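User: Before I run my own analysis I want an independent prediction to cross-check against. Here's the chain; please return only the structure tokens and, at the end, one sentence I can use as a sanity check.
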Amino acid sequence: MELNSKDLKNTVYKILEEGNGILKLKPTWVARKNCPSGKRLGLKEEDYDKGERGEITERWIASTTEADNMLGPEDEGLSYLYSGCGYNISLKQAIKIAKDLILGIDYSRNHDDTGVLVKVLDYDDRIYYHYHQTESDAAAVGKHPKEEAYYFPEDTDLGLHPESFYGLHPYIAEQKKYDILLPYLEQWNSDLILKHSKAYTQARDDGFHLPAGIPHSPGTALTVEIQEDSDVYSVLQALYRGTILPKDMLFHNMREEDIKKFGEKMVLKQLDWEKSADPYFYENRHIPPIPLEDSKQIGGNEHWIIYNTSKFSAKKLVVYPGQKYETTEKGIYSVLAWKGNGKIDGHFCEGGNPGFDEFLVVRDRAVKPVVIENTGPGELKLFKFFGPGINLDTPMLVPYYNK
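Assistant: Structure tokens:
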């Protein structure tokens, strides 16, 4: 059902008022073609297969970003509110209508939405080797860049290949042998480009931070990913699971005039060689959880799980059985209940139960104490996700280099 603009506005304001500044969100599923699903997202077996669109491999959290898929509905990737009255209202629409109320007056002066995209990745095989465009290259096609970070929860299935390829061997940049990648891109008939990358283990309760412009091939661990609000990418690996991928995936998110002028060499212009071939890549990109100072309460504790950037951040909150935890933040954030059950400011939540596990806490509610209550027999575990510029006190890695 659709509402006229006046009724839509009234409905959004009513939802905000009745939820006391906390929006309950419907689960959002995204299919990817050519990539098999790990089928760990809580759907029925038959619901993962979407025919020509591929399989459901991702769940997007509090999303105002459309998926950049060649097939699929126009609103694929957008999150929707539980309106209580049968109307379909996307979070993107709600923010447009009540921007000051949701983002906060000060924050909304420089931001049109949350500025962040959160996903749960569920792949049965490593994702093909690809990269995301940097700010200037993404802007050339009217998109945002895509810096991202990953957290691998400690109580999840790691899958068949829990290792990710990140970056390139250091000598390639040191000796300026950039053209070493060209034959794989021009011939487009193998997966041997992976010879020039390194694989890193996906360990539980661990993570990595990955700036844009770095080629990577994420492994099969069930992964919580947070990134800039974009879905730009270009694929570098031709052969994937015994099939040659369409070559237009290589030139995805590039301007036609650049493709005609530079061809496959356009990739070499878009990669961030310094970060991709960093000899201390692990030391400079590895982000294990860090306890928040003064976060311990009788009822629980918090850890930073995503940090090392001002573009986004995330925390893990654990509330002990039968206890309560009071949390106050600096701005708007989304919540994914991962494990256990309880209440968020009176709203029932249950980890692993799509439809009862996803929320958005608006700015003016977030800066006041929100009580999280564990009503179950085990730990209640929540993840909180923040957009750009909200947590400027996140830990930053000290750049490691050979002195």
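Sanity check: The chain has two domains: 5-285, 290-386.
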